[in-house]
């Protein structure tokens, strides 16, 4: 029996994308019914705590939170994990990352700021495109700071949960980001690496969505067979592998991501027959 639903946000719980409502009505109804029967919902995202209030306002049911790719864990409103990079290790890795891959821009998610971007070695074109992207996020937008002073202050204080490096803007760069993630994981075993579209995401060792879900289940004494995980991106692959039998990938995800999950589902609300078994329906099986 599934007791815990762990869901990614962008492209998953936030799919189909609703510019004003954030979460579609059918996903809200499923969440309400699942919680009513005693289930627990966990939002597992690369986003930070800044998004929590918006989710709560629109989801309408209690949920636990795994943020910044597993560096933050909140259970019943209490923070039980809050991990950050070691200062010198992160500075060394960042320097080598710049020298070897020359990312288009670098962002930090910290205890104090959801998104901090350095202006160092960022082209005017890339800066403009990212500014435009952020401006059009609407309700999905998180607070954003562009400042070398803030960037390096947060880095030097050891306040950084996660680092994101933009490899490029094209689909080819997205493929490259996936490839580089594997290379970096082999080269830097003291960090965790995943990818999200054209971005590479870096977190402290032991901090990933998969490890955070395991921590969460053990903390509450819930059997690992009683969790269902659903997502759509490279940073969800670890969850798929760790909880394979009850892993679901969104149908619109890349093939390389879908291949890691046991099942494929078009929408989160299509998980109703699995999460609320009183409904007579058959779960969506893996494609291909």
Provide the residue-averaged pLDDT. Answer: 92
Number of domains: 2
- Point out poorly predicted stretches: 280-285
Number of strands: 14
In the CATH hierarchy, what is the architecture of the largest domain at level 2? 3-Layer(aba) Sandwich
Structure description:
With 288 residues, the protein is an alpha/beta fold. It has two domains: 4-82 and 208-275, Rossmann fold (3-Layer(aba) Sandwich); 87-204, Hypothetical Protein, Haloacid Dehalogenase-like Hydrolase, Chain: A, domain 2 (2-Layer Sandwich). 36% of the residues lie in helices and 22% in strands. The protein has eleven helices and 14 strands. The strands form two sheets. It has an eight-stranded mixed beta sheet with strand order 5-4-3-2-1-12-13-14, sandwiched between helices. Strand 4 and strand 5 (78-82) form a beta hairpin. Mean pLDDT is 92; it is low at 280-285.
Q: What's the arrangement of secondary structure elements?
A:
Layout: E1 4-7, H1 9-13, H2 25-36, E2 40-44, H3 52-59, E3 64-67, E4 72-75, E5 78-82, H4 87-101, E6 105-110, E7 116-117, H5 124-135, E8 145-146, H6 148-157, E9 160-166, H7 171-187, E10 191-196, E11 199-204, H8 209-220, E12 227-231, H9 237-242, E13 247-250, H10 255-258, E14 263-265, H11 272-275
Parallel strand pairs: 1-2, 1-12, 2-3, 7-8, 12-13, 13-14
Antiparallel strand pairs: 3-4, 4-5, 6-7, 6-9, 9-11, 10-11
């Amino acid at each position: 029996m599934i007791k815990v639903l762990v869901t990614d946000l962008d492209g998953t719980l936030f799919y189909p994308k609703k510019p004003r409502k954030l979460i579609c009505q059918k996903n809200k109804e499923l969440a309400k019914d699942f919680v009513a029967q005693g289930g627990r919902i966990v939002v597992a995202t690369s986003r930070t705590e800044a998004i929590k209030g918006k989710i709560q306002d629109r989801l309408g049911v209690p949920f636990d939170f795994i943020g910044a790719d597993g560096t933050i864990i909140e259970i019943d409103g209490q923070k039980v994990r809050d991990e950050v990079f070691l200062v010198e290790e992160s500075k060394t890795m960042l320097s080598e990352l710049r020298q070897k891959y020359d990312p288009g821009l670098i962002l930090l998610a910290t205890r104090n700021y959801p998104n901090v971007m350095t202006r160092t070695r960022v082209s005017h074109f890339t800066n403009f495109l990212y500014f435009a992207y952020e401006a059009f996020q609407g309700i999905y937008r998180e607070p954003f700071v562009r400042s070398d002073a803030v960037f390096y202050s947060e880095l030097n204080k050891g306040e950084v949960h996660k680092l994101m490096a933009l490899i490029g803007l094209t689909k080819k760069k997205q493929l490259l980001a996936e490839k580089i993630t594997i290379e970096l994981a082999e080269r830097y075993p003291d960090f965790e690496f995943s990818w999200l579209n054209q971005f590479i995401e870096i977190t402290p060792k032991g901090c990933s969505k998969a490890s955070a879900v395991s921590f969460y289940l053990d903390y509450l004494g819930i059997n690992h067979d009683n969790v269902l995980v659903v997502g759509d991106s490279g940073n969800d692959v670890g969850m798929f592998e760790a909880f394979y039998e009850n892993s679901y990938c969104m149908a619109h995800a890349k093939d390389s991501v879908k291949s890691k999950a046991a099942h494929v589902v078009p929408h989160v609300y299509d998980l109703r027959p699995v999460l609320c078994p009183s409904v007579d329906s058959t779960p969506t099986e893996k494609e291909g």
